[in-house]
Amino acid sequence: MMRQRAIPGVDAPAAGGFAVLMPARARAAGEADDLLFSRWLARSGGWITLGAVALLAAIVTVWPMAASAQGKYSFGDAFDALIRWLPFLVSSGFLLNVLISITTMAVGTVLGVLLGLGQISTSRAIRRLCWFLTQTFRNSPWLVLLFIVMLTFPFEIVLGGFVVKIPDWLKAVFGLSLPVMANISEVVRGAVQSVPTGQWEAAESLAYSRRQTLWRIILPQCFKRMIPPWMNWYAILTMATPLVSLLGVEELITLSRQAMESENNHPELLIPFYGFALVIFFAYCYPIARLTLRLERRFAVKL
Taking all residues of the chain, what is their mean pLDDT, rounded to a whole number? Predict the structure, then answer.
């Protein structure tokens, strides 16, 4: 019996990385470990909602009595302040969070696909370089990367006599795109390795080049497999966007702090304002988690 020939850059297991998509003979592509977050978020929606309702009921019952005992500013006044600031927090705050997440995901996806394809290159030097970049940014704290980018990038660039200002949110996009790029790179590598090697051999028997095999045979099969973990990482990224508030970007959390300061920083303002931030992020990410699980079941490899 002839021994199966190894495919350069594809058969070799990733050294030091966490598996994203296992080969089809071992596990269905839809059962990727990277989807654990979306599964937890989607399946915990019921008890999270009940817990939030119970907590809110307890707060509404107990807080007014404590607030009235401490001063004239009551829980109702705090909610009135939230209602006044609500349009501003949504239009100028949360929409910026969404813009940062979408732009970061677009940049990180493009760079991650290139880096992932580099990990399966036939060139050993390119494979090692792409592996090193992937592991470096994948295992680095997101906040540290944000600080490095925000503090090292200039605030403006002079091009041909014109001064081009770089806003803080754009630098935050670049800082967040580095870890996203690394994780998407692993998604691409894992998806390619999940395709049975018989597909490569069949393409080779038809005299396809490696480039033709990738673009016409392998990657079209990988696309559907990469959608669920890609959406999972988008949900994670969206909930990580409040990190940029620590660097002065005026998104939802920063504007919430400014709104509370304008209301004289009453302690009663904390729960309404930060509770609203929790609710709006949950309302945005929970449908994504549900859709991720649906696509996971739909695109799972049937063995």
Answer: 80
